[in-house]
Amino acid sequence: MRVLVTGGSGFIGSRIVSRLLDGGADVRVLDLTPATDERAESVVGNLADPRIASIAVSGIDAVCHQAARVGLGVDFADVRDYVEANDTGTAVLLDALWRRSFTGPLVLAGSMVVYGEGRSRCAVHGAVRPGPRRPDDLAARRFEPRCPVDGCGRFVSWEAVDESAPPDPRNVYAATKLHQEHLCTLFGRESRAPVITLRYHNVYGPGMPRDTPYAGVASIFRSAVAAGRAPEVFEDGGQTRDFVHVDDVARANVLALSKPGVPAGAYNIASGEPRTVADMAHALAAASGTGLEPVVSGRWRIGDVRHTVASAERAARVLGFRAEIGFTEGMAEFAGAPLRA
Predict the structure, then answer these.
(1) Can you tell me the distance from the alpha carbon of 184 to that of 94, in angstroms, rounded to the nearest whole number?
(2) According to the model, what pLDDT value does residue 70 have?
(3) Would you say the pTM of this structure is higher than 0.85?
(4) Residue pair 331/231 in contact by the 8 Å Cβ criterion
(5) What whole-number distance in Å separates Cα of residue 217 and Cα of residue 295?
(6) 306 contacts 145 by C-beta, under 8 angstroms
(7) Are 268 and 314 in contact (CB under 8 A)?
(8) What is the rounded distance in angstroms from the CA atom of residue 42 to the CA atom of residue 255?
(9) Cα(25)–Cα(18) distance, rounded to whole angstroms?
């Protein structure tokens, strides 16, 4: 099997490439820099360039589409960069595949950000989907989302979200990740190529980019500790996430590419161990041995969500995927692992 991995020189993509090569696949990487594994063939260039995309898809049996601009971003001024990288890049790739009569499989790196606040429960109204949090609540440090039913306004508790939850993107990055899903799904319907979207939850591990607001909270905290600074925890630290190790994510991609008959659609890729952002900051600081203590600042961003916790049951049942690297083990490794520039 010859597999094209877009973004195959990146944090997650490079792990997927090496795992595919170890399993005997023939791998081609399309990225802005050459493949980090010398066993792979490299096509160096921008995915949004139709000429480069056409070269990259020639003779390909399967595609693992990892290339994307990631992270929440700084503010709305990032919108053009996100749309060009994520929406336009995906459209150019799909156009090149269509012209080659590609019939799959296509595995897309999706994201849990498409769920927004996910699923919550009100003590009076049961399962609800909270609307965007109110700036006046956030400014007053009332961080929990509220019940939206008939002006109820009670604070709600989170529940695990499965793949049937309707999308509710809350920031530009989330909107582009959802559009990637829509474009790939439409391509799959017309080409009859199986399209499998892996909705990653909070991926962390060795090789994360350092010192960038786009890299995710784990990398930001890890960079702070490495620089001798206490990690700054936004809000009150009670935001709930599922932190999943990059090696588990790579393994999920290989399963999606290689397992026969995987039904098209979305799959949550998560550890199944929900933790708070404060938990993660304390685990990293403790494992670093620096004596640094996280600082809870109370700062907030309007595009952030409070809780996104996955149900990983479908991935376990259909893909046979279960995370193998636990939170404590993974964070202890990550605390001393190298980051990339």
Answers:
(1) 7
(2) 84
(3) yes
(4) no
(5) 14
(6) yes
(7) yes
(8) 23
(9) 10
Average pLDDT in the chain? 93
CA distance 143 to 76: 22
Distance between start and end Cα atoms, the chain: 32
- Which long-range contacts link 183-186 to residues 24+ away (Cβ below 8 Å)? 183/87, 183/90, 183/91, 183/94, 184/65, 184/90, 184/94, 184/106, 184/108, 185/264
pLDDT, tens digit, 9 for 90 and up, residues 289-315: 888 899 999 999 887 889 989 899 999
For helices 246-258 and 11-22, angle between their N-to-C axes, nearest 10 degrees: 50
Cα–Cα distance measured from residue 43 to residue 52, given in angstroms and rounded to the nearest whole number: 8
Query: Which pLDDT score, from 0 to 100, does residue 71 have?
Result: 75
d(CA 196, CA 46): 23
Provide the 8-state DSSP code for 78.
Answer: G
Token digits of residue 29: 């990487």
Closest of 86, 35, 38, 325 to residue 206, by C-alpha? 325
Residue 212 has a CB neighbour count (10 Å cut-off) of: 15
Whether residue 325 is predicted with pLDDT greater than 90 in this model: the reply is: yes
Per-residue pLDDT averaged across 118-134, rounded? Answer: 91
Residue carrying structure tokens 């090149």: 96
- Helices 327-336, 277-288: inter-axial angle, 10-degree rounding: 50
